Amino acid sequence: MSAGIYSAMNGFETEIIEMHDVAGGQCTAWNRKGYRFDYCLHWLVGTSKGAFHEIWKETNVLNNDTEIIDHDIHSRILDDEGNEFIIYSNINRWEKYLMELAPEDKSAIRRMCIDMRKSALLEPFTLAPELRSPLDYIKIVPQMLPVFNVIRKFGRMTCKEYFEKLNFKSKRIKSVFFSLYGNRNYSALAFIFMLGWFNQKNAGYIKGGSYPLAQRMVEKFDKLGGKLSYKKRVEKILVEKDVVKGVSLSDGTMVAADFVISAADGYSTIFKMLDAKYISKEIDFAYKNWELFTPIVQVSFGIKKAVPSESPIIINISKGMAIGNTKLDNGYSIMNYAYDSTMAPEGKTAIVLRYDSPWKLWEKLEEKEYKAEKLQIQKDATACLEKEYPGISEFIEVIDVATPKTDVRFTGVKDGAYEGFMPSKENMMKSLKMQLPRLQNFYMAGQWLFPGGGLPPSAQTGKWVVQLICKKEKKIFVSNRSAT
Q: What are the b/e assignments for 360-376, b being 16+ CB within 10 Å?
């Protein structure tokens, strides 16, 4: 949507081809009997300032009518002994909480929170990498020096290695941190940066969630004169003598174009739509070696009563649990949307339970097995919800199960990897180029270019590719044209 908006904004005749019947890709939600179940938005970096904030305003994600909710509590963690652990959005408050919880770790806690505060200085660029001058980098050095030092020290560490370096003594802190982040090749920087945006109140939740957010972008695109074609799937990107000429659709239709931008997942684009003909060493290495996000199962509940919650997210890290055929190595999370009145009818509550579920468990399931697994998931997930909210089962009036196969069916994403590449110590500070070797008039945008994925880099690359096209066409790039 971002690439389409900026293309139309800069005077290009623009068509977005969408395989689903709604726009937004992973940024979506669906309605069931008056409840809205959100699949994407928990927070959004850039709700108050910075380069991402400008993108959200330019694309109509944020306008005078949008309401931002900044939660005091980021998440509430529960273990198998019933112990509670809080992650506060404010770093000072969290630091005080941790020191009261584990006074023996004051030094380690202080060092960790200092690293997190430094990360708040990280500021994304406005210009695409190909358009930056050495002066653009020199200008940011004074402000970003503390961040560079954090990156230099911890950029090649996993969370496990970072926690071991801090040498926490408290069993409680070690148990929570290692359970959440320590058993995966998860980048230490991703953990350190996590609270930097929240601490500035620059990663709020937008009331209404994913679906209205995407629809505001559709409205902007439509008013700029763009064309959005639904329920059409691109099969191949048409190329003649290494120059892109358009796309062919699954229904046999050919759509001619001077430029093509793919915001589909990278694997489908490079290895299927382009038949693996344009691959650099970096791309080859990334797709062979970078770990993908484990797909998720989302079980959504419509509760016919108000269920208040102090925390937007509850994470249960108890050991030895399972839902259906999935062993919950990383526990499960519960998102209670009581704070958003648009998600359920008055006096009712939408609650979503999520857990990681490897693609190999789903890939070859036949229809009968698939239906049986979804029924078992309903039963097991209801039991998990009952554990967090005793007595809630009798008030459940809607249950909806979305699996990795659901995600693949509606978005085409490889192996259900909803945010592309997992941020690891090997790739956290790396990215893939928006252009492929030797191929002209073709660009890639979206979260598959940046390990960690998410909405901000998706929208950012949409803006960047249009900057590159404008340069090639010798046009002055604009980002603030009003839709009329």
A: ebbeebeeeeeeebbee
Same structural domain, 305 and 395: yes
* Co-location of 191 and 94 in the same domain: yes
pTM, entire model: 0.94
In angstroms, rounded to a whole number, what is the distance separating the alpha carbons of residues 140 and 146? Answer: 11
The tens-digit pLDDT sequence of the chain (484 residues) is 999 999 999 999 999 999 999 999 999 999 999 999 999 999 999 999 999 999 999 999 999 999 999 999 999 999 888 889 999 999 999 999 999 999 999 999 999 999 999 987 788 889 999 999 998 888 888 877 888 889 999 999 999 999 999 999 999 999 999 998 877 889 999 999 988 899 999 999 999 999 999 999 999 999 999 999 999 999 999 999 999 999 999 999 999 999 999 999 999 999 999 999 999 999 999 999 999 999 999 999 999 999 999 899 999 999 899 999 999 999 999 999 999 999 999 999 999 999 999 999 999 999 999 999 999 999 999 999 999 999 999 999 999 999 999 999 999 999 999 999 999 999 998 999 999 999 999 999 999 999 999 999 999 999 999 999 999 999 999 998 655 4
Distance in angstroms (rounded) separating the CA atoms of residues 471 and 463: 13
HSE-up of residue 483 (Cα within 13 Å, Cβ side): 19
In the Cβ-directed half-sphere of 71, how many Cα atoms lie within 13 Å? 27
* Cα–Cα distance for residue pair 389/274, rounded to 1 Å: 50
Report the SS3 class of residue 30. Answer: strand
d(CA 402, CA 384): 17
When divided into structural domains, the chain yields a total of 3
**Domain end: 368, 387, 411, which one?**
411
Enter the DSSP assignment of 324.
T
Residues 307 and 396 in one domain: yes
Q: Is 221 found in the same domain as 283?
A: yes
DSSP helix, strand, coil percent of the chain (3-state; round to 5): 40, 20, 40
Structural domain containing residue 200? 68-205
- Please indicate, yes or no, whether residues 119 and 165 belong to a single structural domain of this protein: yes
